[in-house]
Design a protein that fits this description.
This protein is mostly helical and 326 residues long. It has helices spanning 5-20, 30-45, 47-70, 76-86, 95-103, 108-125, 128-141, 151-171, 181-204, 211-247, 249-278, 283-289, 294-297, 321-324. The chain has a domain at 52-279. It is 72% helix and 0% strand. Helix 8 runs antiparallel to helix 9.
Length: 326
Amino acid sequence: MKPTKLSVALAREAYEVRRQEAHGWLRGTTAGRTVARTIRGIADIEIADRAMTLAAQEFTSVLPLIVAVGTIGNLDAVSETFADQVGIDPGSLTSVTRTTADAIESSPPTFAAFGVIGILMVLVSGTSFARALGRVYGKVWDVPVLTLRGWWRWVAVLLAVAAALGLLGRVRLVNSVEWVGPPLAIVGEALVWFGLWMAVPYLLTAGRLAGRVLWATGALTSAGLTLVGMAGVIYLPRAIASAQGKFGELGVVFTGITWMFVQSAVVVAATVVVKAAALDEGVLGRLLRGPVPEQLAVVPPETPPDAPPDPPTADVHDLPRADRTG
């Protein structure tokens, strides 16, 4: 298999890590250095700020898309899924739209045209979520961020997230099956998250990441989001009921955004962990980076800044006449 530019860059970075970080109680072992890189990566990416930005963009991008789709189709499955995941029911936000639709039922083409235009506007403005996510991948993996030329990738990510929520709505129906239903639903949810978070970094990095890195990112993100979803089944109903009783609908929105923040933190943290593991100089790192010839990974040592300069080479014409003849 031919090594990619990214795999070679990762191998060289891993070589530098092994050469420079071999001291200290935490950095004295391969596993310790991976943990240290993870902690440093989480601090460098400013995970709290990134997660809050993603949560806010998801609320203002994905949620309006779901509501817009609900104006011209069936919103129930996706609405219930979104409510299960973050505690916000988009169906409650479309009551005015549905009332208006019933009032102008005599002219369905006009309403349909309005729905399509609305969806197009949401798609154009809603790519902010994908752009924010692309900046995360660009900083973690040190790859170029998409420009306007790759606008279709932002739209594809937004549609992929909405489609994944729709699939989760179908998966949750398995819960009604006795005994085997809940375990199958958990497995199905993990598979949906795995497919989504393997495709999203591929789209937002323009295919620069190796396949094994995408697999690892999808698997780790899926595991984290599945665990968060299982915790949300217990936590969210109580938190939503308490927040709604104290603050009304504003409390519901605040709780939903808080849970989106937790999910976004999982996405960012999983990416950082995979990058730290890819820089591992042991077996794990070599598995993630792929085959790289050893000579490509070795970086020539740099000249120390305090080393004396090499003596200048004298030109034969600058020598005394007696020395020219030897």
